[in-house]
Every structure is written in C-alpha cells, then in structure tokens.
Design brief:
Layout: H1 2-43, E1 45-57, E2 60-71, H2 74-94, E3 102-104, E4 108-111, H3 112-115, E5 125-135, H4 138-145, H5 148-153, E6 167-169, H6 173-198, E7 202-210, E8 215-218, E9 226-240
Antiparallel strand pairs: 1-9, 2-5, 2-6, 3-5, 4-5, 7-9, 8-9
Length: about 240
C-alpha cells in the first residue's frame, strides 16, 4: 500500500510540473508573439527628404581693382603707379568706402626680357597694381563696377580677367538656418503623411533625422551677388495601422 501511495504522489507531482511547464510555454508564446509584432511594427518605416531653398543677397564683397602699366624705366613706372592708385582710392572713397576697407598690394613687376625671351615686346617692364576693397557695402561696389568707364577716362584700364573678379559672400547663414530647417522638415512630413495615407497607414514618430549640408551658390553668372541657399533634410518615420 505504501508503494502505491508513493507512485500516486509521483504521478501527481509530475502532473503539476507538466501543468506549470504548459502554462510557461503558453505565456512565453504570447510574449514572443507580442515581441515579434513589435519588431515588425518597428520595421515599418518610410524614409523621406525635405527641401528648402531661399534666395538671398550677398552681404560681403572682396573686390580687386587691378590694372597694368608698361614702361622702360622702373622709377618712372612707380611714380605713375602711385598716382593712379591715388585716383582709384579717391574714386572709392567718394562712393562711401572707408579707408579701413581699402588695401593696396605691392606692385608685381614683370621683366619681359627674362620672362618672354625671344619675343618682341613694346615695354621692358610691365607692372601690375591691385587696390582691393573688402566691405559690407555691396550695393556701392555693384555701382562702382558699372562706373569703371570713369577710371578709363583718367587713363586707368581695369584688368577684367577671372583673377580679378569680385567675390561676393553671404555671412548670415546662422540667422536663417533654424527657419530653413523647420521648413525642410515640414515638407518632409507632408510627403511622409501622403505616403502613409496612400498605404492606408498612419504616420508615427520620427525614427531618425539628418539635417543635411547647407550649400550657398550663385543664382546665376550675371548676378554673382545674388545667392541661392539650399538644404535637404532626411527623415525616417514609423508607420502604424
């Protein structure tokens, strides 16, 4: 009888253990199922880009006024250069350019006998002089560029090759960055909402966002003082049912 009782207790204990294992398996399956659903939900992502462009005017300019003078006597050439530099400086100051914004580079002297040997040259020396303006008075410089004929009337022919072209820049990017990023992000969200609606889903939270690089380029070759500022943001959104 005692042996039969032991066997019954053993069976009962095993049945309890089996029930516990069964319950554990059921609960684990439910939790695993929920976890898989959550992972699948997290995998539903839409990636979109938002663009913002803005046209601005340059607020800084570096403008060289360069010319060349030829002759056979260096001392006479230097005297002529000094006189013509003074004419250019007065021309600039009359337009409202401050002395602090004007700089005069040391003249560059080319000896045609050594540099251009074997060729027939009118002058022994060719001197290049450059008067440079660095200022925030962009409008004044634009006007002066169109008035170079006044210098020509005084015997100063400006060198117009690429090396001596004005360089316009926009320095207030930090002032417009926040609003441009906001606009680009808004455009990205509108695109994502349209995608979600088309796929019969709802737009969730942001998974990942990248601001992107700001670029500043000339609007066109004829008006280098007009700039085009551009930024593209990349945003990943979760999609949900």
């Amino acid at each position: 009888m005692e042996e039969i009782a032991k066997q019954r207790r053993f069976v009962a204990d095993n049945e309890g253990l089996g029930c516990c294992l069964m319950i554990g398996l059921i609960v684990g399956s439910i939790l695993l199922g929920n976890a898989i659903k959550a992972v699948r939900a997290d995998d539903r992502v839409v990636s979109v880009k938002g663009l913002c462009e803005r046209e601005v005017k340059a607020d800084r300019v570096i403008c060289p006024f360069a010319y060349k003078e030829g002759g056979d006597n260096l001392q006479e050439l230097y005297v002529t250069i000094e006189k013509k530099n003074r004419i250019i400086i007065d021309f600039l100051k009359e337009a409202g350019i401050a002395d602090a914004d004007i700089s005069v580079a040391a003249p560059k002297v080319l000896d045609t006998r050594t540099e251009w040997s074997g060729s027939q040259n009118r002058y022994t020396y060719i001197v290049t002089s450059v008067v440079t303006v660095c200022t925030d008075k962009v409008d004044e410089i634009i006007q002066l560029q169109s008035r170079q004929g006044e210098l020509l009337q005084k015997g100063i022919a400006m060198a117009n090759n690429w090396e001596y072209q004005p360089v316009y820049s926009f320095t207030q990017l930090n002032d417009i960055k926040p609003s441009m990023i906001e606009t680009a992000t808004k455009n990205a969200r509108e695109t994502a909402e349209k995608f979600a609606a088309d796929s019969e889903s709802k737009l969730g939270k942001i998974k990942r966002a990248t601001q992107g690089q700001f670029s500043i380029t000339d609007r066109d070759s004829n008006t280098p003082y007009m700039k085009n500022v551009r930024v593209v943001t990349s945003v990943d959104y979760y999609l949900k049912d």
